[in-house]
Design brief:
The chain is mainly α. The chain is built from 22 helices and no strands. The longest helix is centred in the N-terminal third of the chain and has 36 residues.
């Protein structure tokens, strides 16, 4: 009973994540219930909802109440919007949804930051206090702390889910769901709940109300995506992180320029393998359950300009920002100068979405300025821009993205500057050989991450096809062997996914 209770109760130092054995125990239990109920749609969706809420409780504790609040509010607001023909009432309801969601997001992500800014600017000593705790009942299950605002895992993702739904209902793109459980599953679907991809109602709602038909190809593709995601996260991302990136960024003044360069390249591969690994697992789990989620990455480091990069990186966020922020601001419909301003505003807010820190605003601002500059250059001299060699465009884009990752990863601005300055310190050839010999595993995995990133699509399709048509016994053997191999690399200390903090 102690072990059962230990599994059921939330522990802030041991969240339920895809790389933990506990998650796969959870998923195995879920599959038992799912396989017994999938023929009855309403029962199946209820089972998914119960397990999704439990998953979120295990990931973020009392914040499951916040998730339920968001679900309930926007379900009814969408119903009200759908049932009224009065345009003013529709605007009132959508204003309530947008305002409430953004206030909740701002409170949890930025309240303490605003207090720090006010104290710093005016010399005040305002106290930081979590006022929401005062209105919630105290209980050991909730583990509430009035002196800290614990950022709920994935709050940005489920808020954006919910906002896109009410806005699309307001625009007449989708019809409001009439079943609360169906809508709750859309918002809380556990594979993509805490780190995306950001699912749009127009892409997912129809699947919720359709019967589940087991599909051998979808199952095989799902298993392959899960294994690939675990390999990216545990073998490549976590090993590079613990092997070089954390050490260099924690104390940049104590390492050589060679190690700094490896860490900068390493973080570029680490964050890609970490985030795309999560979304691969999420998409794979969804496929096993009969749901198709859109891909979130498309080999972004192959991009030959910054605009192309943002069409390939975190696609669901890029499309969300385009449809719900950039276009409503005016997009490119109000002249060139306004277009550049809209791009900059969109990326600044996209940076702020990542966290309450000046480093994320700087990161977003750099990308916004680069997007505006690229658009200006293409508009000013389209023929010249077309003649720029692809290799040169790729080299400039890749390294611009890498250098922007430095403030994104660093804990402070001074730390970021120290990392950047150490890149340009000359290193003798003997030191280069010595560092690479000491970091042979990290360097090998870094190269492997790059290789997997640039593999031709035809190779990937071939592997997918072979995996899908394999007999069940071979599929089981490959899966078991791969899991044993992958988990040999797992460190004793849990390595959360990077995007959990957003």
């Amino acid at each position: 009973m102690e072990k059962v209770l230990d599994f059921l109760l939330y522990k802030d130092d041991a969240p339920l994540i895809f790389t933990s054995v506990e998650f796969w125990v959870f998923f195995g239990i879920f599959l038992l219930f799912f396989s017994a109920t999938y023929r009855i749609r309403k029962v199946k969706n209820f089972v998914i909802l119960v397990f999704s809420l439990f998953f979120y409780y295990k990931s973020s504790g009392w914040a499951v109440l916040l998730l339920l609040f968001s679900i309930n509010q926007d379900y009814w607001i969408a119903r009200f919007i759908g049932h009224t023909e009065n345009p003013i009432r529709k605007k009132v309801w959508i204003s309530i949804s947008v305002t409430t969601n953004l206030l909740v997001l701002s409170y949890f992500k930025y309240a303490f930051l605003f207090v720090d800014w006010i104290n710093s600017a005016f010399g005040t000593q305002l106290t930081k206090q979590n006022w929401i705790v005062a209105i919630l009942p105290g209980h050991d299950l909730l583990k509430l702390d009035p002196d800290h605002i614990l950022l709920p895992v994935g709050i940005s993702f489920f808020i954006f889910h919910s906002l896109s739904y009410t806005i699309d209902v307001f625009r007449g793109i989708v019809k409001p769901l009439t079943n609360w459980v169906d809508y709750a599953v859309f918002v809380s679907f556990f594979p993509e709940l805490v780190a995306g991809p950001i699912v749009r109602a127009r892409d997912f709602v129809d699947q919720l109300v359709s019967p589940f038909v087991p599909d051998r190809k979808m199952f095989g593709k799902g298993i392959l995506l899960i294994l690939g995601g675990l390999f990216k996260k545990i073998v490549i991302s976590d090993t590079i992180s613990t092997g070089i990136v954390d050490r260099v960024f924690d104390q940049p003044e104590l390492v050589s320029s060679v190690e700094t360069w490896i860490a900068v390249y390493g973080y570029g591969i680490q964050i890609f393998c970490d985030f795309s690994g999560y979304t691969d697992i999420a998409i794979g789990i969804a496929l096993i359950l009969g749901y198709q989620l859109k891909p979130n990455f498309d080999q972004p480091y192959k991009s030959i300009n910054i605009t192309e990069f943002w069409r390939r990186w975190h696609i669901s966020l890029s499309v969300w920002l385009r449809d719900y922020l950039y276009i409503p601001l005016g997009g490119n419909r109000k002249g060139n100068v306004r277009t550049y301003i809209n791009l900059l505003i969109t990326m600044l807010l996209g940076g702020l979405w990542h966290g309450a820190s000046a480093k994320f605003i700087l990161w977003g601002g750099l990308h916004g300025a680069a997007l505006a500059l690229h658009k200006f250059g293409v508009g000013l001299a389209p023929r010249i821009s077309e003649k720029i060699p692809s290799a040169m465009g790729w080299f400039a884009t890749f390294h611009f993205v890498l250098f922007c990752w430095i403030p994104f990863r660093a804990d402070t601005f001074d730390q970021a500057m120290a990392v950047f300055q150490h890149l340009w310190i000359p290193a003798p050839f003997e030191l280069i050989l010595s560092v690479f010999s000491q970091l042979a595993l990290v360097a090998s995995l870094l190269l492997l991450g790059i290789l997997l990133h640039v593999l031709p699509d035809s190779w990937k399709r071939f592997v997918n096809h072979q995996f899908e048509k394999s007999p069940v016994w071979l599929l089981a053997l490959v899966t078991l062997s791969s899991v044993i191999l992958i988990f040999q690399f797992k460190s004793a200390e849990s390595q959360p996914f990077i995007y959990f903090q957003f």
